[in-house]
Amino acid sequence: MRRVRVTISGEVQGVGYRYTMQRVAERAGTVGWVRNLRDGRVEAEIEGTDAAVRDVLTWAAEGPRGGYVDDLSVQDLPPIGGDGFEVRRDG
């Protein structure tokens, strides 16, 4: 299992990034959360198999139609388990 915290910058707020990531993450079989940050970035934690996390990160580097990604920063974290993938309140 792998867990990562990812911070995404670019045109990533107001374009459906969080809700699309939630669908992508659930389809990949990962758990975690995603939220907007006050500085215009999006932050997420994603946990699952290496392949599933990689699939979500590949999508995250592109983002949804209508937006664009300038930078994607990934930090590995210890796995903690969990259920589901949620969209959290802005942080």
Which tags fit this structure?
91 residues; alpha+beta; Alpha-Beta Plaits; 5-stranded mixed β-sheet; 2 helices
Description:
With 91 residues, this protein is α+β, with helices and mostly antiparallel strands. It has one domain: Alpha-Beta Plaits (2-Layer Sandwich). It is 27% helix and 40% strand. Strands 4-1-3-2-5 form a 5-stranded mixed sheet, covered by helices on one side. The model has no long low-confidence stretch (mean pLDDT 96).
What pattern of helices and strands is seen along the backbone?
EHEEHEE
Number of domains: 1
Strand order of the largest sheet: 4-1-3-2-5
End-to-end distance: 26 Å
**Average pLDDT:** 96
Number of helices: 2
Output the radius of gyration: 12 Å
Biggest β-sheet strands, sense, barrel: 5 strands, mixed
In what range is the share of β-strand residues?
Answer: 35-45%
CATH architecture: 2-Layer Sandwich
What name does CATH use for the topology? Answer: Alpha-Beta Plaits
Low-pLDDT residue spans: none
Oligomer category:
single chain
What proportion of the residues is helical, as a percent range?
25-40%
Shape: globular
* Total beta strands: 5
- By helix and strand content, what is the structural category? alpha+beta
SSE blueprint:
Elements: E1 2-11, H1 17-28, E2 31-36, E3 42-48, H2 50-62, E4 68-77, E5 85-87
Parallel strand pairs: 2-5
Antiparallel strand pairs: 1-3, 1-4, 2-3
Helix pairs in contact: 1-2
